[in-house]
Amino acid sequence: MSALTFKLKQRPDQRVDMSPLVCHQLLGMEPLTIAAIELQCGKRKVRVDELFSLSGFDTQKIVIKNSFGKLDYIGKELSEGSITVEGDAGAYLGFGMKSGAIKVHGNVGLYAACEMKNGYLEIDGNAGDFLGAAQPGNKMGMKGGTILVKGNVGERAGDHMRRGNILIEGDAGDYCGSRMTAGTIAVMGKTGRFVGYAMRRGTLLLWNQPQLQASFNDCGAHTLAFLPILFASFKKYDSRFAETSAAFNRVRRFAGDMSELGRGEVLVRI
Amino acid sequence: MIINGVTIDATFAEAFPMKATRAIITAQNEKWAMISAQAMTGFATSVIACGCEAGIERVLDPSETPDGRPGVSIMIFAMGGKGLAKQLETRAGQCVLTSPTSALFAGIEGGIRIPLGKNLRYFGDGFQIAKVISGKRYWRVPVMDGEFLTEATTGQVDAVGGGNFLVLAESQPQALTACEAAIEEMRKIPNVIMPFPGGIVRSGSKVGSKYASLGASTNDAFCPTLKGMTKTDLSPEIESVMEIVIDGLSKEDIDKAMRVGIQAVCDLGAANGIQRISAGNYGGKLGPFHFHLQEIMA
After folding, report:
1. Does the beta-carbon distance from B147 to A222 stay under 8 Å?
2. Which of A226, A237, A244, A251 to probe the B interface (max B CBs under 10 A)?
3. Quick one: B7 and B78 in the same domain?
């Protein structure tokens, strides 16, 4: 069965809430029923077939073509199946995602994987601020799963992150891993200012020495046994993280943020 | 049945249901993985007094271990799940956590999950760090040589304990040589351990004793020095008997181990002083698993 494909006819001026178009909500629906679903677009509601031309039947395999940066909430609370986005995605991509996989061939906006619970999210381009973070005012960000970003990410990646992995092949903006409670963020590129700001626990695994705050204490150079296991778990991804040459187990360990609980760590490759 | 001049008795070994688990110990090199494994499986020959039966299953190549270092696979058997969990935890804490460069991983993926490093983490006094990698929880416990890495849990499965056979020989050296040959072959079989020293028991027991406080005592029917004063099971030319006890994850695993072990003994044959192969049982009334020697060797 071919993938259920939504091809954007023309870009609307207003943002579109794509949250109804997820695998578990469309399961068992006929194409005509799907076409009649109403999406919030700005202050009005529009039918799916007004915005998209539809083809294919497999509701467990959704493809969004001609996507652009105003399509918000793609894959909201996804609990099964896969969504492929050809183009950019808007804000709140994979919001509260529970399982399944989302792959975006372009860039994504703010709050991607916000409060993600499980599953796999892959972004070929760049991601905006608050990747894998908590909603404003909430205390718990990403709680599980893996995010792979092949480009750069904005500020506050992993803010309030609780569990899971964020893998960034490019650079990370300021406050990467801020207020982390646990989990792992790996950054192959450079990191901005205030890395691990107010982190309580969790691991920031960095390829390049960051500019650390005074509230991170140097614990020296170490060979850590868990790193080979961590890198082995990345082998399944189509990523530079999967390359054998990317793996290492020798790091300099900085503990912090001592202005908070101080059980977090920044591990820098040496 | 006679193989190479060795008589295979028309009898059977009687075995019991047990609970088992497996753990993988790795270290900087094989030497230290083995030292740790030997410590962890020490004083674990029989549930009668040790609380569990444990042994080294095999040496693992770095490509077979979770962290890519040399390793050793060990198995522990106990009569119940609670006892098994307690033995695993105390042994891991005293013998692996303490062993330089060691790390400890689950050796059974399925089954009931029992704590491996789940509670050892408290040794870290709050500095321990949890990592969930590919759905498995690991604990990193800071220790003086670096970090002790352990998986939180391992699997507990139903198993079989007490498979055995006896080697009856014309002399003590010949019995020992035959048993050594058997153990060498049996160690190649996966999912089994031979928990006694070097895999061999020289003091097989019977149920009960003239002393009320003892539940088991020497198997006088197979003691060569008692041939003239007890209801012996030995012919005049037999001067020494040794036993090999096998615990395995399934009856089939023990079958295989017994087959290769007995075959190795029979390969030495009567020419090397091996007279008979027999087995220990309790009349078939106590253990649900029966290993008939002649069926195994058929």
Report:
1. yes
2. A226
3. no
Residue A93: name the closest of A60, A56, A126, A59 by CA: A126
Question: Quick one: which H or E segment has residue B296?
Answer: helix B293-297
- Same domain? For B59 and B166 the reply is no
Domain that holds residue B54: 19-157
Task: Report A:160-219 residues touching B (Cβ under 8 A).
Answer: 163, 182, 184, 201, 203
| In a shared domain, residues B30 and B96 | yes
Domain boundary among B157, B182, B207: B157
Is-contact B57 B22, C-beta < 8 A? yes
Which residue among A163, A184, A224 sits closest to B147, beta carbon to beta carbon?
A224
Q: Is residue A225 part of a domain?
A: yes
Structural domain including A194 reads: 110-269
| Burial annotation A92-128 (CB, 10 A radius, 16+ → b, else e) | bbbbbbbbbbbbbebbbbbbbbbbbbbbbbbbbbbbb
Of B67, B127, B132, the CB nearest to A228: B67
Residue A25 inside a domain? The answer is no
Q: Quick check: B117 and B92 in contact, CB under 8 A? A: yes
Rounded Cα distance between A104 and A62, Å, is 12
Q: Number of CB pairs < 8 Å for A and B?
A: 44
Asked if the Cβ–Cβ distance from A229 to B66 is below 8 Å, we say: yes
DSSP B121-164: GGGGTT--EEEEETTEEEEEEEETTEEEEEESEEEEEEEEEEEE
Q: What are phi and psi of B259, to 5 degrees?
A: -60, -50
Any bridge partners for residue B60, and if so which? B71
* pLDDT tens digits in sequence order for chain A, 270 residues long: 799 999 999 999 999 999 999 999 999 899 999 999 999 999 999 999 999 999 999 999 999 999 999 999 999 999 999 999 999 999 999 999 999 999 999 999 999 999 999 999 999 999 999 999 999 999 999 999 999 999 999 999 999 999 999 999 999 999 999 999 999 999 999 999 999 999 999 999 999 999 999 999 999 999 999 999 999 999 999 999 999 999 999 999 999 899 999 999 999 999
3-state secondary structure of B200: coil
Q: Does A257 sit behind a cis peptide bond, omega within 30 degrees of 0 on the bond before it?
A: yes
B150 lies in the same domain as B200: no
The packing angle between helices B172-186 and B251-268, to 10°, is 140
